[in-house]
Amino acid sequence: MRNLDITTLRSFVAVADSGGVTRAAGFLHLTQSAVSMQLKRLEELLDLQLFDRSGRGIALTASGEQLLGYARRMVAMNDEIMARLTDQAFEGEVSLGVPHDIVHPVIPRVLQRFNASFPRVKVNLVDSSTRRLKEGFARGEYDLILTTETSAGEGGETIHRMPLRWVGALNGSAWRQRPLRVAFCRHCIFRGEATAALDAAGITWDMAVDSESDRTIEATVSADLAVTVLLEGTEPSHQEIMDHGGTLPRLPVQNINLYGGDRMKAQYIEELAALIRQSYEALRPPLRAAG
Fold first, then answer.
1. Is 275 in contact with 107 (CB distance < 8 Å)?
2. CB proximity list for 159: less than 8 A, separation 6 or greater
3. What is the per-residue pLDDT across 20-47, written as a single tens digit (0 to 9) for each?
4. Which of 6, 94, 187, 278 is deepest in the core (most CB within 10 A)?
5. Which ranges of the chain would DSSP assign to H, the alpha helix?
6. What is the pLDDT of residue 88?
7. Could you tell me if 149 and 262 lie in one domain?
8. Greater confidence, 126 or 261?
């Protein structure tokens, strides 16, 4: 009888999720050669080719796609058994603050991996504006926070950089209007940068909506009543980056900063910070220029 190994299946799932052996090795804290060897043993055990390595990247074959669902369930069941039947899991609580516009896609993956390692640690996730998160962090309300800023403040560690883009409704025309109608939350840190860029370019503008609600801003922009500014890749599916042909000013690149990573109170908080760093490192490099 042949038996599947959970460690090998965990490596298989990590490679499938991250799209490459190198990234998976970082998430698993293994060497690239160790992960590659595990994949080779799994293919030999099943006598199947699980990955298509003919292109520049790595992709699942039909057999690999079929195995992935089984592998996820087996790894999850293993982790559930270990969490419920052992007393070696960490117990504690960690408070993480993240700006609402960068919660996806990184943070759900981070929390999933963190929970697999520390199932008895409660994570309190708060999404808010960068300003409010930094104020709360200064008062000790958070163990870790992420921010979006043009530079890192005292104690901040830049872990990624993302360009700002002008965003509007799908096939919208609001960006052509003058004065340009813009929409921002009152505490949005991009608000001042966008209006300053418009002023420097000599473009007149009106604040179409001034609200505390992100949903209100999203609805206004989606209705083609105004434009806004978002980090590239965070725009919702019903909005798009404006192809304005240079008629709107260029915008600065934003730093994704981590605060609290240098003053760990517990080992599991250090692990959460490490997972956040690794997940942002796995993102594609941002463009140098923004518009």
1. no
2. 256, 257, 258, 276, 277, 280, 281
3. 888 888 888 889 999 999 999 999 999 9
4. 94
5. 6-18, 21-28, 32-46, 62-85, 106-117, 130-138, 189-200, 214-222, 267-281
6. 55
7. yes
8. 126
Residue entry with tokens 């001042």:
192
- Residue-wise pLDDT for 49-102, tens only, equals 999 888 777 889 999 999 999 999 999 899 888 777 765 556 789 999 999 889
| Nearest to 66, CA basis, from 83, 46, 45 | 46
Find tokens 């240098």 and name the residue: 262
Q: Looking at the structure, do residues 121 and 141 belong to the same domain, yes or no? A: yes
Instruction: Determine the Cα angle at 42 with ends 40 and 47, to 5°.
Output: 95
Structure tokens at 166: 């002008």
Type of residue at 236: P
| 10 contacts 73 by C-beta, under 8 angstroms | no
Tokens of 114: 């963190």
Instruction: Evaluate whether 236 touches 219 at the Cβ level (below 8 Å).
Output: no
Encoded amino acid at 278, one letter: Q
Q: Print the domain residue range for 168.
A: 162-253
Q: Tell me which residue of 230, 174, 170 sits closest to 205, measured CA to CA.
A: 174
Question: What percent of the chain shows pLDDT beyond 90?
Answer: 64
pLDDT, residue 205, reads 97
Structural domains counted in the chain: 3
- Rounded distance, CA 190 to CA 217, Å? 13
In whole angstroms, what is the distance from residue 133 CA to residue 274 CA?
20
What single-letter amino acid sits at 282? Answer: A
262 and 153 fall within a common domain: yes
